[in-house]
Design goal:
The chain is built from one helix and no strands. It is an all-alpha fold. The protein has a domain of about 25 residues. The radius of gyration is 18 Å and the shape is elongated. The N and C termini lie far apart (about 40 Å).
């Protein structure tokens, strides 16, 4: 969907749906890993 008001531009392909599912799964896994402390918190490191 696109625009205001929204309208359908084209259908999503099966390959695009699979990729979106991959992105969501990967994002969630990265969030879990971050919450376990696997990544350094560099939010204020440059100060």
């Amino acid at each position: 969907m696109m625009g205001v008001p929204a309208r359908i531009v084209r259908d999503v392909t099966a390959q695009e749906r699979e990729y979106m599912q991959y992105v969501v799964r990967n994002y969630m896994e990265l969030g879990r890993r971050h919450s376990r402390g696997e990544f350094a918190n560099v939010a204020g490191a440059a100060r």
